[in-house]
């Protein structure tokens, strides 16, 4: 058998036996013979913090068949060393439950609409690993996280996100016992997982960096004073946690939990996006639909779209798809468009979290972020340098000029 690693650092356990188990699971046949494995990296340096992504082309035969070629994406999630802190978040099991249990049922509620790549295989030994279909084969690709998404791309995402949210609401209405699911309470940014201890330091460090820039902006003097008080009194984390916690008044669905550019794959026709699928469901949780929308708005939009088009995106993309999917599923008490807009406003503090913790890393130039990793952030000197760089990018600062005034008008910093 031929194994081509192409000068990539591929773990030893991703061998012939591993992929035979994958193929047996996928095909349902024990008569699998592998002829070749051809590896490449599935993401560039600095693009994934918690996992390593590999792309592999497999040539194999089944009993009585000719050569069959198939492609997989392998997500390896080592939870030791610098990543050990993520063990208690149970991100591997959360993602496994989403791909093998929750997502198929959501897609069923949506007449089998494709929300995410198929998941073929999962194992926890020797390293937590998930194997997916490679969406590059049917023509899907990632957008540019540094630039953010233009209006056309944003419409595609808001449409698919609306359908996903509607599917989650239909599923929760059909199976209310899921409300008590432990795995749907533990997303990376859930009120169970986030605490003043694990969120406070990075949040307030970036607030301090932001204050350093905003203090030079005309018209932001009062906001800067308020932010300095928030920094001094450490009041922001509690406000964020209050926003995240589900309440009886929320429009509750199953949140993706990490809606930013690299977690979307787009399909194109004549250079225009026509569809998208979502990846990376380790942050998923039961929560307000407003959380995902605010997180997406604050992290992933180009400046002009953030400034001019958010209402348009809700009115023309999100809500029509949301309502149509709920109507097809005979959902009771469908929220109005005003209900949705009010929900987004009430949950906007989650957008602040996204803008202060997620956007800085996303908007970094790829040359500056090539060494970004969990290991790098454990080195205080390197982490400080990266933090200073990430909070100095043009998109981060221009986004904050828009968002800070909005968040201040909601009273978030009072």
Automatic annotation (TrEMBL):
Residues 130-328 form the CHK kinase-like domain. SMART domains: CHK. SUPFAM superfamilies: Protein kinase-like (PK-like). This is CHK kinase-like domain-containing protein. It comes from Hermetia illucens (Black soldier fly).
């Amino acid at each position: 058998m031929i194994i081509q690693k192409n000068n990539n650092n591929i773990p030893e356990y991703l061998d012939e036996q591993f992929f035979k188990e994958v193929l047996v699971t996928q095909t349902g046949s024990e008569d699998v013979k592998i002829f070749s494995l051809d590896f490449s990296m599935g993401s560039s340096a600095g693009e994934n913090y918690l996992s390593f992504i590999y792309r592999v082309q497999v040539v194999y035969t089944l009993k009585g068949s000719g050569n069959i070629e198939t492609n997989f994406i392998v997500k390896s999630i080592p939870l030791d060393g610098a990543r050990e802190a993520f063990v208690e978040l149970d991100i591997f099991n959360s993602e496994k439950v989403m791909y093998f249990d929750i997502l198929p049922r959501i897609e069923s509620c949506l007449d089998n609409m494709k929300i995410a790549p198929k998941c073929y295989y999962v194992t926890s030994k020797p390293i937590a690993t998930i194997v997916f279909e490679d969406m590059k084969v049917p023509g899907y690709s990632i957008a540019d996280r540094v630039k953010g998404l233009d209006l056309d791309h944003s419409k595609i995402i808001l449409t698919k996100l609306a359908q996903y949210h509607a599917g989650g609401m239909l599923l929760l209405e059909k199976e209310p016992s899921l409300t008590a699911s432990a795995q749907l309470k533990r997303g990376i940014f859930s009120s169970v997982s986030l605490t003043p201890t694990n969120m406070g330091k990075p949040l307030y460090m970036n607030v301090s960096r932001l204050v350093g820039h905003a203090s030079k902006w005309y018209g932001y003097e009062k906001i800067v004073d308020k932010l300095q008080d928030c920094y001094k009194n450490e009041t922001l984390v509690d406000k964020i946690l209050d926003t995240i916690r589900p309440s009886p008044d929320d429009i509750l669905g199953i949140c993706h939990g990490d809606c930013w550019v690299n977690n979307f794959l787009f399909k194109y026709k004549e250079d225009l996006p026509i569809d998208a699928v979502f990846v990376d469901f380790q942050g998923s949780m039961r929560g307000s639909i407003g959380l995902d929308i605010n997180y997406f708005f604050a992290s992933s939009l180009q400046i002009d779209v953030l400034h001019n088009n958010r209402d348009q995106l809700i009115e023309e993309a999100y809500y029509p798809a949301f309502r149509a999917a709920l109507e097809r599923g005979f959902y009771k008490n469908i929220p109005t468009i005003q209900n949705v807009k009010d929900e987004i406003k009430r949950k906007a503090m989650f957008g602040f979290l996204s803008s202060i913790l997620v956007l800085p890393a996303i908007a970094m130039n790829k040359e500056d972020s090539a060494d970004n990793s969990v290991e790098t952030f454990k080195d205080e000197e390197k982490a400080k340098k990266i933090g200073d760089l990430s909070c100095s990018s043009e998109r981060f600062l221009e986004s904050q000029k828009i968002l800070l005034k909005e968040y201040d008008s909601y009273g978030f910093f009072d």
